[in-house]
From TrEMBL:
This is Probable RNA-binding protein 18. Residues 94-115, 655-688, 779-808, 825-852 are annotated as: Disordered. Residues 698-779 form the RRM domain. Residues 94-104 have a biased composition (Low complexity). It comes from the Eukaryota. The chain crosses the membrane at residues 44-66. GO terms for molecular function: RNA binding. Gene3D superfamilies: 3.30.70.330, 3.90.550.50. Pfam families: DUF604, RRM_1. Keywords: Membrane, RNA-binding, Transmembrane, Transmembrane helix.
Amino acid sequence: MRGGGAGEKLHYKEANVAHGAAAVYGAGAAGKGAAAKTSFLNGLLLYVVLPVLVLYFVVIAASQFYNPRCSPEGNAMATHFVVANKPNNASLATSLNASSSSSASPPPAPGSKTMRLTAEEAPTGLRHLVFGIGASASLWESRKEYIKLWWRPGRMRGFVWMDKPVGEFYSKSSRTGLPAIMVSSDTSKFPYTHGAGSRSALRISRIVSETFRLGLPGVRWFVMGDDDTVFLPENLVHVLSQYDHRQPYYIGSPSESHIQNLIFSYGMAFGGGGFAISRALASELAKMQDGCLHRYPALYGSDDRIHACMSELGVPLARHPGFHQCDLWGDVLGLLGAHPVAPLVTLHHLDFLEPVFPTTPSRAGALRRLFDGPVRLDSAAVAQQSVCYDHAHQWTVSVSWGFAVMVVRGVLSPREMETPMRSFLNWYKRADYTAYSFNTRPVARQPCQKPHVYYMRGSRMDRRRNVTVTEYERHRVKHPGCRWRIADPAALLDSIVVLKKPDPDLWKRSPRRNCCRVVSSPKQGKDRSMTIDVGVCRDGEFAKAKCLTRPIQPSTLRLRPHQIISLDSHRPRVRAPRSPPLPWGRGVCLTALADRRKPGGLVAIGGRSSQINRRSDQIYGLRAGGGPLEDGSATGDSGASGGWWGFAGGCRRGAPATGAGQAGSSEGLKGAARQHASGQQGGTGQDMKGLEADKLECRLYVGNLDFRISESDVIKMFSPFGKITAEDFLWHTRGPKRGEPRGYAFVQYTTKEEAQLAKEKMNGKLVCGRPMVVHLASEKSSLDSSSSHRAVKDKKLAGGSGGKSQYTDRAAKIAAIKNKLKSLEEGGCSTKKPRLNPDNLTGIREQSHKKF
């Protein structure tokens, strides 16, 4: 029993041990299952839930920057960013945005007075503008690069209206960086009868109406432009914010071409330059435009059709000089270098103009440099001019911020520098100064006065000093030689640095040019750069052109006719001229130079242009005896040492001695000028005749010119025979032929020999089928005087012989006019041989001499 009991006990113990082992094994297995389940849940949380939460917070944080439905002013204005296709969606968008606003302060109910006032009184921004851009599929690939320069995806609303779909029509605008593409509606029902135009003008003229009918909420202004129109959006917003969009406004600018404005209208906004229509006016236009288009089928383009509808509505054009149609050819330096005191809003016709920065190969690339730099840093100040002076070198400095800096030798007045330089041609490719609708000045013919141009090469923001830093590099073109003693900017100056604080409120004040100050000037052999500070004018600060004069003691110089007086800081010197005199009246200041108080002596007296009666760049001074200078032309400019130059002429001997003690004084000069102007000074008429005779001996008359010959052609034809000091190309200034050549010109040489040589070589030469008539101007005067005397004598001899002779003279004149018209019709500028034989040419030459 014990053995069996012990065995049972042992068996029981082993069973318990086995059961415990099984229990332990079961518990271990259960623990492993729970651990596997926990790790699965942790992995699910780590790889699924956590990324979703992170993405959620990232989207919430970034939505305020990238969601176009959010407004910088807060949720109260979010309704203006909802793009809807139907007007009924506006109320739905308002309620949705109102319900998603901050829970801390419950928003007012939709349509309440508080929310309505907030939306109406908010300042005008980019969200309140919608752009309508007229384009064609044929030019889209090249023109869309211009739109990418200024378009801000997500911040601006607008559409490109095409004549047919293009590739971007099926893509989202956010991917292409372009506005949404729309196809204009059919315009076949509208009549178009202009022979030289295109029917596309009908669909482009309806862009504003079609955009208005889309019903976009919160739109205050409808802006129209072409696919090659470049906008500066911030400047456009500022211009439009000055007007009440609830009133009818039609804002834009006419053309730069006077002839274009005459053909169309000075009261029309040219569409290429862009224009803006307020919402109130767009609503009225959409109601009546279709009927208006039926009433004007003979008009040429789209902008004159819109102008016709505006005339029916009675809304005039509100002109703004910042919109530029750019009906020009060539270099736009003159226009942007002296931009009006107004924000630059648009540029157009960029394919017809040279790149704004000549060193950039493409036009779009040059504009990209402008937009990535100055437009981004300080859009309000782009192309705004400032004028200052480097008195150490006697330079005039004109800063067109963000574009170019021009440095000119000498002291030129701000009045002259703010006038655009004619670096371009008019729309008809003619160098006609009367063909522009704004004031211009010629490019300096004197080599020493040609500007040295420094174009913008880079820009950055110095955040430590809160200033913009723009760098300008010299445009390396060859300049003609100059013998002036003023320092050459090309030899001393390679780069210019302009410092300017950003001024976004520039146009919220009254219009005024910024002032510039030369902080550092280049020195010989050292730093070849200049630093200029540009900013708001301080109290009492203005651009002052200093007239540096150094009067000397009388009776110190013995002058001969046509000698130059050179005054430096030490002593005066007399030498012969090596270059022709400069044009008078370019901001130059003169003073009394020398006086030889003897009968028949020589003197040179100068003064401001307002004190001297001048004709043909002539200056009249006083000698000791009171007589005028014979052939006394004068000019002046500040030299490197602080002096100036002037031409002096010999006094005519035998003139009456009056006012001997007044020579060299300003009172004597003024008195002489008054006497000369009134013709009361003794002997002045004889002296004037002698002076004019000397001038006419070097002056050529060039006649019988074809109307296709331009001013530059005349200069090219006559420049091989000598130095041309002046050239007058005559234009029609009145009547239907205004702006066309009159068919003759005058060329002035330095010597009589050069004029005589040009006369011998060019007289009778066939140009465009016409033999030119070239002779001295003095010959023309003598012939005119002799012919007038002969006519008077013949009239006296005829006496009262009756009406038969008068009738004969009239018939002869009519026959001569008919022959002249017939010869003009037969003549032409062709490659065929001229019809005139040498005998006829000789006869015509003799007749032309008799005529003139």
